[in-house]
Amino acid sequence: MKKWMLCLLLALLCATAALADTDGIETALRQAGLSQPVQLQQSGNVAACFAEAEGVQRLIVLEATDGVWQIIVNNPSALIPAEALPTLWLDNGDAIYWTYPLENASLHFHSARSADGSWGPVDVRVLVSGSGGYTHEYATWWDDAHGGEIIRSYAESDENDNLLPYGSTYEYYPAAWLGDCIRLADFNLSRFPCFDFDGGEWWFALNTYLREAATALMPDCAYLDGLVKNGALHFLVQKPDGTKRYVICEYASHREPRLIESTPLPEDTYLGVENFTDSLWIHGRCVTVQLLNDNTAGLEYIYDDAAASDGFLFFGDRTVWNDVMSQSILYGDHPWSDITAIDWDALPRTLEEASARMDSSRFAVVANPDPKDRLHLRERADKGSLSQGKYYTGTPVLILNDTESRDWSQVMIGLITDGGQRGWMMKKFLTCGRADAALTLDVRPMPNLFSTGEALKVYTEPQPGAYTLHWSATGYTMKVIGVIGDEWYHVWFPATGEYGFVLQSDLWEGNG
Predict the structure, then answer these.
(1) Strand partners, 480
(2) Which residues contact 302 (CB under 8 A, 6 or more apart)?
């Protein structure tokens, strides 16, 4: 990335203001009612500059045919209003760049010329200089795939311009309605969403994008507010019947918009509360919603600054707890994991109240007599059967079969399709749940381990193969529930309900 910046600077330094046909270009501008060109550059039969009309600066591209210059791009909406002009660079007549300096960063716009001579979509890159010579690159561009979508990427490189080993991340958002404002001739900065810098409404127009997205995806609703969170679009809208709804648009998994719409919200609900910018304000409390891993949406946390404790209740897939560092987690089916069925007027205020409304009758928890011990998950209901792993006290399991054997229960840990294991455990080392209360998971016996790097590979099976990257995995967000042989850990993420397998060599005890 820094090589790209260096090439750009060198090209700018080497660029000459002496053009072959300045008079012809100025004549074309004058005939169009434009001022004298600024930063005029020419490459063959293509020229580019800035020029002004009626007090508005414009990005201009011209082409010469039979020696006559014609304006093919006259765009007043590609530049940041009321800002000093960016630095312009025309690269061999096939690409154009304009760059704004930022504090410890730079903002780059780019468009390329296709084989047929037309200028294509504009992409945006923000390059941030980090400590130790590291560079962070945030890129946003439009692609006509799947009817039109916005792609956002992030990458980091070291001082030698080497991409760091965990590579790039990509997010995808629907954007079919932007097809009329993304090519150079009609590029409109006020409608193009760049999610990474809050430079003002006139800069990256995220709210404009969200409003247009809501209109395109939910034409019968009135847009009230919105945000982008964890790769999904979140909206607060008003239905034709006057009720307010919270809607999440999940797109990346299937590359088509999938809307998850809440039950009606209280009439006075609004989005964004002081530092809790992604929270709904409901009856004097901050209520935050998250997209879960199975394309459902549920509560993430409730914060009540009037509560006697620290004020937080955190929610996950079948989990509730009140402290990120908590060693005790409530487990069971609960009514706050699906916004399409939540009663927003009856949200819990305490762990005790939450537990009383949870159903743990389908589940059990591993309870070893000695917490240092681990319980075998056997392939069959037999002590001599092959062990598929050894599990710590506090590990939740789903009961599949509790009647076939007097001494054994068939259980599943996680999901077979997502880092799960199926097998048999001895009943005497399991504590079963009940219909009117949650199981309480004591996770203190589990080792408190951390990822050795920023990104942790979490595999779907205890062997090399398919994996997902989890960023900044710690002993607070990830629980090591079991050991598979001498090489693998079975891990669980209580907040999202995800399970998987991690190489033991990829985790460590941290710095204490």
Answers:
(1) 491
(2) 285, 286, 287, 288, 312, 313, 315, 347, 348
Within 8 A by CB and 6+ apart from 335, the residues are 341, 342, 343, 357
Half-sphere exposure of 466 (CA within 13 A, CB side): 6
Answer for the pair 83, 68: CB distance below 8 angstroms, yes or no.
no
Q: Any idea which residue has 């919270």 for tokens?
A: 246
Euclidean distance between CA atoms 451 and 453, whole angstroms = 5
* CA 113 to centroid of chain Cα atoms: 31
What 3-state class would DSSP assign to 354?
Answer: helix
CB 355 within 8 A of CB 438: yes
- Cα separation of 440 and 319, whole Å? 10
Place of tokens 């304000």: 281
Give 207-216's long-range contacts (Cβ < 8 A, gap of 24+).
209/150, 209/175, 209/178, 210/235, 212/177, 212/178, 213/173, 213/174, 213/175, 213/177, 213/249, 215/177, 216/174, 216/176, 216/177
| Residues paired with 73 in a beta bridge | 61
Separation between Cα atoms, residue 38 and residue 8, nearest integer Å: 19
The pTM assigned to this predicted structure is 0.86
Each residue's pLDDT expressed in tens, for the chain with a length of 512 residues: 454 554 554 444 444 444 457 999 999 999 999 999 999 999 999 999 999 999 999 999 999 999 999 999 999 999 998 889 999 999 999 999 999 998 788 899 999 999 999 999 999 998 888 777 888 888 999 999 999 999 999 888 888 888 876 667 889 999 999 999 999 999 999 899 876 554 444 345 788 999 999 999 999 999 999 999 988 999 999 999 999 999 999 998 889 999 999 999 999 999 998 889 999 999 999 999 998 866 789 999 999 988 756 789 999 989 999 986 777 899 999 999 999 999 999 999 999 999 999 999 999 999 999 988 999 999 999 999 999 999 999 999 999 999 989 999 999 998 766 678 999 999 999 999 999 999 999 999 999 999 988 789 999 999 999 998 887 788 888 999 999 999 999 999 998 888 999 999 999 987 65
Task: Please give the structure tokens belonging to residue 282.
Answer: 């409901």
Distance (Å, rounded) from C-alpha 285 to C-alpha 302? Answer: 7
What are the structural domains of the chain? 2-186 (no CATH), 218-356 (no CATH), 363-442 (2.30.30.40), 450-508 (2.30.30)
Beta bridge partners of 113: 119
